Amino acid sequence: MPWSMRGRAAVSLTAAALASAAVIPAAGAPSVPRQLGRPRGHTVCAYTEADYQGLLEHIRQPRPLIEPPVESAVNLSQVAWCFYELPAYGGLRVAVEPGRGTASFPYPVQSARPAGEE
Question: What does pTM read for this prediction?
Answer without folding.
Answer: 0.66
